[in-house]
User: Which sequence fits this backbone?
């Protein structure tokens, strides 16, 4: 397994993990500090980097007075971060076992603790991104073990999930988040998530069209 492929997979894992965390629950001081003190990571949050409130407030006040309020508005109250809301004609959330995303998770033994995650259904954007994180991590382990057949099978699942689920609704939701964001931070979160999802879908499509020929 060459270093370029390994670094590509690690980057995908890290982005899915970070984005899943950011849209699943409020940011805490530790995570915000890690973003601010890593110049490479901070470069993915350019609007937040230059935000005047960031320069004039400590992290605790910034989180309590602005970021938590914005998170609640965007992910809990006014916007609906669930696939079924966007995909069903009646715009009702599918919270039961008939949810197609839940069925995929069950087939692949990906367990979602809804109460712990503070979500009402498995098709929450954060859960779907966490699922992709899990798949990318499994693909990397298969590649490191030299099991190209397993890696290909996992990559096929990734492409299918992106194509049939995430790409069908997440861009619309994230565009709404960008439009409604009340802070520079969550504007950048939405922008980063949108760009990464589009880029990763292109990568997954190219890999599929190559016949899953990894350059190892």
Assistant:
């Amino acid at each position: 397994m060459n270093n370029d492929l390994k670094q590509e997979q690690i980057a995908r894992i890290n982005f899915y993990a970070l984005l899943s965390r950011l849209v699943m629950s409020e940011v805490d001081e530790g995570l915000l500090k890690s973003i601010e003190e890593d110049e490479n990571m901070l470069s993915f949050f350019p609007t937040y980097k230059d935000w005047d409130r960031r320069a004039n407030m400590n992290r605790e006040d910034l989180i309590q007075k602005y970021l938590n309020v914005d998170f609640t508005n965007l992910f809990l109250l006014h916007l609906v971060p669930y696939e079924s809301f966007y995909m069903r004609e009646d715009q009702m959330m599918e919270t039961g076992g008939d949810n197609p995303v839940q069925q995929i998770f069950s087939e692949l033994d990906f367990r979602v603790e809804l109460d712990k995650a503070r979500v009402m259904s498995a098709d929450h954007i954060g859960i779907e991104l966490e699922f992709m994180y899990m798949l990318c991590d499994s693909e990397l382990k298969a590649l490191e073990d030299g099991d190209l057949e397993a890696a290909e099978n996992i990559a096929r699942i990734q492409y299918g999930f992106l194509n049939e689920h995430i790409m069908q609704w997440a861009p619309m939701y994230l565009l709404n988040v960008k439009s409604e964001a009340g802070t520079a931070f969550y504007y950048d979160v939405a922008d980063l998530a949108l760009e990464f999802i589009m880029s990763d879908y292109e990568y997954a499509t190219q890999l599929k069209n190559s016949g899953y020929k990894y350059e190892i």
